[in-house]
Amino acid sequence: MNDYKLVSRSVSDTMELAQNIESEKFPNMVICLVGELGCGKTIFVKGFASALGIEENITSPTFNIVKEYLNGEMPLYHMDVYRLEESKESIGLSDYFNKGGVTIIEWSDMIQNELPAERLEIHFKVIDEETRVIKCIPYGKEYEDLCNYVL
Ligand SMILES: Nc1ncnc2c1ncn2[C@@H]1O[C@H](COP(=O)(O)OP(=O)(O)O)[C@@H](O)[C@H]1O
Ligand SMILES: [Mg+2]
User: Fold this and answer.
1) Taking the mean position of all CA atoms in its chain, how far away is CA 146?
2) What mean pLDDT comes out for the span 27-55?
3) Ligand 1 pocket member 62 (CB < 6 A)
4) DSSP assignment of 48-113, as one string?
5) Alpha-carbon radius of gyration of the chain
6) Is 38 in the pocket of ligand 1 (CB under 6 A)?
């Protein structure tokens, strides 16, 4: 399988990547963000949200797991599953995947078994204070096409 490796040298590089991906959004898109605390997952969501025209400030939905932003070009469902207590709450999250919006999941590796087969995974690796190696891995034709087009 193809994957796409990029280097981000600043917050704005990471936001630009998100904006490029947003430009090829489609209903029921699922983007899975993986990487340690502080690698830039929420920064990516901020970039994506601003490209959607969402004006609210984006913060990680740590305690409520999902935040819905409905005033952009398409609904955005922002999940942070770091504190998800398995069995209990993960059931129900998948309802968001086909509501017509875009779902972005921070710490998606913690719910690996609940993820849709077709999705874009983005893995962040911290190199130094400002540098991140970012690997985009498309699962499914739509996501492969998207990566070919924007990356
Ligand atoms: N290239 C970069 N891409 C994204 N964030 C960066 C980058 N360089 C430095 N940072 C900093 O790293 C932090 C990333 O925070 P955040 O996006 O909240 O991480 P996470 O959600 O993965 O825990 C921010 O403080 C941001 O300013
Ligand atoms: Mg975060």
Assistant:
1) 14
2) 98
3) no
4) HHHHTT--SPP---TTTSEEEE-SSSS-EEEEE-TT--HHHHHTTGGGGGGSSSEEEEETGGGGGG
5) 14
6) yes
Find the ligand nearest to 37 CA: 1
* Best of 10, 11, 135 for a ligand 1 pocket test (most atoms within 8 Å of beta carbon): 11
Strand 132-139 versus strand 4-8 pairing type:
antiparallel
- Extents of the domains making up the chain: 4-150
Mean of pLDDT values over 66-83: 95
As a whole number, mean pLDDT of residues 91-116 equals 94
Q: Would you say the CB of residue 108 lies under 6 angstroms from ligand 1?
A: no
Cα 142 to averaged position of ligand 1 atoms, centre (Å): 28
Mean pLDDT of 16-33: 98
What is the reported pTM? 0.97
**Closest ligand 1 atom, CA of 9?**
1
Residue 90, pLDDT score: 66
Q: What is the pLDDT of residue 122?
A: 98
Q: What is d(CA 144, CA 49) in angstroms, rounded to the nearest whole number?
A: 22
Q: What is the CATH T-level fold of the domain 4-150, as seen in this structure?
A: Rossmann fold (3.40.50)
